[in-house]
Automatic annotation (TrEMBL):
Subcellular location as annotated: Cell membrane
Domain Major facilitator superfamily (MFS) profile: 16-403
Biological classification of the source: Bacteria, Bacillati, Bacillota, Bacilli, Lactobacillales
Any one cellular-component term (Gene Ontology): plasma membrane
SUPFAM superfamilies per UniProt: MFS general substrate transporter
Alphabetized GO MF terms: transmembrane transporter activity
InterPro entries: MFS, MFS_dom, MFS_trans_sf, Tet-R_TetA/multi-R_MdtG-like
TM annotation in the entry: 20-41, 53-75, 95-117, 149-170, 176-199, 220-247, 259-279, 291-309, 315-337, 358-375, 381-398
Protein name according to UniProt: Multidrug resistance efflux pump
Keyword Cell inner membrane in record: no
Pfam families recorded: MFS_1 (PF07690)
Origin species: Ligilactobacillus equi DPC 6820
């Protein structure tokens, strides 16, 4: 994957990267193997109205993001004291247990509680990004973090296929057991194959969070990147809950709506996989901020015509085109953070960024539901374009301050 590594890459870097990439792939795979079937699994546990089922499913979905947003700063502080490898082990180990326990659940409230617990201890992907960023020369961060992103995207693309096949063979509980076993494998791979060159910070010498933020050389830029993470994630999540409903409307409830919905939902992922490596190299060559602004401009333009689309395959095409630029957004934000902060505070800065991303996961579906109820499904695309345009304007204003 990386044919020419510079001499300043630490020994064992390739092996560490490979293990973390597989861990992120497994995490993405496991999430998308189980989440699409959560409402059906809940439905099998009792007799619920459609309104109740929608409520419980939404609660189970958002509970993970909510607890993740709350707990991430705590884990970030611990990461700066103990290292990012330990945080990856904590996340994969606890997720293996909670996901397996979810497969054994006998009621919806047990599932919701386990999802909340899972979110409180999750964070493998973000910690893996902080881990590998700390092991990588800053001038190569764009390529490395963009390539790392392909792991999660690939897992999310393949997950529903594997999850559907496994559920068809052994019922809705089996995907949770398989995912639990895979997360245990991610724990083992991370424990054995990764090597972290980390200098611990004692609790006494560790600066308080407020002091860390105040001492940052470009505080406004850092907080703008946090906000960008929230808006990008909210934009992605605002569309997701209504995709199947929009597809059903565009197909006039004829044909295989489930299959076509899966294709439409997966289309951005294919675009991201195709463009990730190229955009990563552009970040290293031209700077992450320029790539971020270009990617956001592109998405603003692409979302606008989707408001007028009345053909499901044209919708699929535009979602694929949007996916081409997705690799220029969150990886670019992470690369900006990598270049702006000292390695000693990577854990906390990346954890704050994770909190904002999790908040986007909570806010996004709420925005999508509210906008679609007032302006119909297509209105979400228009609102998303406006949201990204505002964010783009803020980044352009701050561009002169970015090194």
């Amino acid at each position: 994957m990386f044919t020419k590594l510079d001499a300043d890459f630490p020994k064992g870097w390739r092996q560490t990267f490979g293990a973390l990439w597989l861990g992120c792939f497994i995490t993405g795979l496991g999430f998308s193997m189980t989440m699409p079937f959560m409402p059906l699994f809940m439905e099998s546990l009792g007799t619920y109205s459609q309104t109740q089922l929608n409520f419980y499913s939404g609660l189970a979905f958002s509970a993970t993001y909510l607890s993740q947003a709350i707990m991430s700063p705590l884990w970030g502080s611990l990461a700066d004291q103990k290292g990012r490898k330990l945080m990856c082990l904590r996340a994969s180990g606890v997720m293996a247990l909670t996901i397996t326990a979810t497969g054994l659940a006998q009621g919806v409230w047990s599932i919701i509680a386990l999802r909340f617990l899972q979110g409180a201890f999750s964070g493998y992907i973000n910690n893996a990004a902080a881990f590998i960023a700390g092991e990588t020369p800053k001038r190569r961060s764009g390529t490395v973090l963009s390539t790392m992103m392909t792991a999660n995207v690939t897992g999310n693309l393949l997950g529903p296929l594997f999850g559907g096949a496994i559920a068809g063979l052994g019922g809705y509980r089996l995907p949770f057991f398989v995912t639990g076993a895979l997360m245990a494998l991610a724990f083992i791979l991370t424990a054995i194959l990764t090597r972290e060159h980390f200098i611990p910070i004692t609790k006494e010498k560790m600066k308080p969070a407020k002091e860390v933020l105040v001492s940052l050389p470009n505080k406004s830029l850092i907080f703008l990147m946090f906000t960008t993470t929230l808006i990008v994630q909210a934009s992605l999540m605002s569309i997701s809950p209504i995709i199947s409903l929009l597809v059903k409307e565009l197909m006039h409830n004829h044909g295989n709506v489930s299959f076509v919905s899966g294709v439409v939902a997966a289309a951005p992922g294919f675009g991201t996989l195709l463009a990730a490596r190229y955009l990563g190299k552009k970040m290293d060559a031209s700077g992450p901020t320029k790539v971020l602004m270009c990617g956001m401009t592109y998405q603003v333009v692409m979302f606008l015509p989707m408001f007028f689309i009345r053909d499901v395959w044209l919708l699929t095409l535009f979602r694929f085109l949007i996916g081409l630029s997705s690799a220029a957004l969150l990886p670019a934000v992470q690369t900006v953070l990598t270049t702006q902060v000292d390695k000693q505070v990577f854990g906390r800065i990346f954890s704050y960024n994770q909190s904002f991303q999790a908040a986007g996961g909570v806010v996004g579906p709420l925005i999508g539901s509210a906008v679609s109820s007032v302006f119909d499904y297509e209105g979400v695309f228009l609102f998303t374009s406006l949201l990204l345009a505002i964010n783009l304007a803020l980044i352009m204003l701050a561009h002169k301050k970015i090194a």
